Amino acid sequence: MYDPNKAHYIAITGIIIKDGKYLIAKRSPEERVFPNLWTVPGGKLEATDYINRPKDTSAHWYNIFEDALKREVLEEIGLKIKNLRYLTSLSFIGPNNIPNIVVSLFADHHEGEVKLSKDLTDYRWVTLEEAKNYELIEGIYEEIEMLDKILKGEKIESWKK
Fold it and tell me: CATH number of 4-151: 3.40.1380.10, 3.40.50.11750, 3.40.50.720, 3.90.79.10?
């Protein structure tokens, strides 16, 4: 039975790493949520991310978040990525009152040059220090900071402001 209390949109985002820098992109002013703010690539999980492909077991599809992020990164910025790993998760209530769950991954740049979709207006490869100079969506800087610590071999517990 459908339970609206358990229904959510699911989005996957990814911090892309290349030559020790992180990719950020600026959202279009036409975006309904967080217009003109800087973010990392990602988007909503769609049933077509798995439903039309063969199952990995008799009942399940695997690597759904990873495949969705690969699709979103290719669509939004024209890059192929590899070595996808989990970073953190968050939730928020959208302007339409629908709960959203966001799974934040990170990945290495594999190939391609940045080609922005119409939903993005600019991009930068930045260090953690340089990221402070951009008006990022709330929480994105802390995610980049978490990743920076991971890449330096430091232990992290969870997202902290």
Answer: 3.90.79.10
